[in-house]
Write a structure and sequence with these properties.
86 residues; mainly beta; Jelly Rolls; four-stranded antiparallel β-sheet; 9 strands; globular
Length: 86
């Protein structure tokens, strides 16, 4: 299954809304399976990951809020693409 890195942010929270397909979401210690029109909120500092558990393309809307929204505010904890800084 395709997935994003397990990550967290120091300066932003995120709200994910599933528009199409299904999403397997790690949000802290919980794993959620969301379908179309369902959503989850990820607080600042919470460990999270998004994955597509199926074959239907996954589309989400991501709303970010916080004092800083730069892409360099990503702390990767696990990554399938070798992007963890050591």
């Amino acid at each position: 299954k395709a997935s994003l890195s397990l990550q967290k942010h120091h300066h932003r929270a995120e709200h994910w809304i599933v528009v199409k397909g299904a999403a397997e979401i790690t949000n802290g210690s919980k794993t959620l399976l969301l379908s179309e029109n369902q959503s989850t909120y990820i607080p600042i500092g919470e460990t999270h990951r998004l994955a597509n558990p199926g074959t239907i393309p996954l589309e989400i809307i991501e709303v970010q809020s916080g004092g800083y929204l730069g892409e360099d505010d990503i702390v990767r904890l696990e990554d399938s693409y070798g992007r963890i800084e050591k």
